[in-house]
């Protein structure tokens, strides 16, 4: 028993060293922009770059739209499949896993062929249309993670009983979906939202080929042309990711401890 505990702590220590040491090295290197002393010049350079603020804000907006529209697509689909079409679950799960198999470059080239300026729906003819296409692309990439998270949360509740109880009280389908189902699967939605946010903030291929000012192409551009700023950007991105995860955990905990209204 004691040896098992030692091995467990040893495994945890090795894992911590594996993740923390490179992070410390990256942070230390980002402080060496000025020769002979440690400074935050690289961080100041990043934050003062207007392109950083523009691309970061754009990706944040795209992540917000992706999470909202992805949630509105996945939650009703998972609910309807579990309630009315249980035999279709393997088919739906297979479809949602396709973005893991098909490369992103293939997906975006397919979108460009379908929605270019000479197609029946020329989304790439305008900036708003291209942004919409980018949101659809991000939704496709995040679909496996969002669907799995929501489906797992939906397994924890009795969908049939909730629906029958709501219908017996005269509730319509929109009321059932948004006041009964959504609150009960919020933990899954938040998990999917966190993964979606991470995907959108770091995605390069789709944003680059659609020529949109996203954060992923900006990271690649800085990494190819500067020395210390890429390390500072890596630390900033890591901090933002952990901050987002902490906020999601806080919201999820608040959701669990909030009193249920009759």
UniProtKB/TrEMBL annotation:
- Where, per UniProt, does this protein localize? Cell inner membrane; Cell membrane
Give an example GO cellular component term for this record: plasma membrane
**Homology family:** Belongs to the binding-protein-dependent transport system permease family.
> Does Transmembrane helix appear among the keywords?
yes
> Sorted alphabetically, which SUPFAM superfamilies does this protein's record hold?
MetI-like
Q: Name one GO biological process term.
A: transmembrane transport
Location (main, coarse): membrane
Write the protein's name.
Answer: Putative spermidine/putrescine transport system permease protein
**Which keywords fit this entry according to its UniProt record?**
Cell inner membrane, Cell membrane, Membrane, Transmembrane, Transmembrane helix, Transport
State which residue ranges cross the membrane: 7-27, 56-79, 91-112, 132-150, 189-210, 230-251
Q: Which InterPro entries match?
A: MetI-like, MetI-like_sf
**How does the record classify its membrane topology?**
Multi-pass membrane protein
Carries keyword Nucleotidyltransferase?
no
**ABC transmembrane type-1 domain mapped to chain residues:** 56-251
């Amino acid at each position: 028993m004691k040896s098992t505990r030692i091995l467990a702590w040893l495994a945890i220590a090795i894992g911590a060293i594996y993740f923390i040491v490179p992070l410390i090295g990256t942070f230390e290197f980002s402080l060496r922009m000025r020769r002979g002393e440690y400074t935050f010049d690289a961080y100041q350079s990043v934050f003062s770059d207007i392109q950083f603020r523009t691309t970061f804000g754009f990706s944040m907006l795209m992540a917000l739209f992706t999470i909202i529209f992805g949630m509105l697509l996945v939650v009703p689909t998972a609910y309807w499949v579990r309630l009315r079409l249980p035999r279709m679950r393997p088919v739906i799960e297979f479809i949602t896993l396709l973005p893991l198999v098909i490369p992103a470059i293939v997906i975006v080239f397919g979108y460009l062929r379908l929605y270019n300026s000479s197609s029946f729906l020329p989304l790439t003819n305008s900036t708003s249309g291209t942004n919409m296409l980018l949101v659809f692309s991000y939704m496709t990439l995040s679909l496996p993670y969002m669907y799995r998270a929501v489906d797992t949360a939906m397994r924890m509740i009795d969908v049939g009983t909730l629906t029958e109880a709501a219908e017996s009280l005269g509730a319509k389908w929109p009321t059932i979906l948004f006041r009964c189902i959504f609150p009960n699967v919020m933990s899954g939605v938040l998990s999917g939202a966190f993964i979606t946010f991470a995907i959108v903030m770091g995605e390069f291929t789709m944003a680059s080929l659609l020529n949109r000012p996203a954060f992923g192409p900006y990271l690649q551009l800085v990494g190819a042309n500067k020395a210390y700023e890429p390390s500072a950007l890596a630390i900033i991105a890591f901090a933002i990711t952990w901050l987002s995860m902490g906020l999601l955990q806080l919201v999820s905990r608040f959701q669990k401890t909030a009193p249920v209204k009759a």
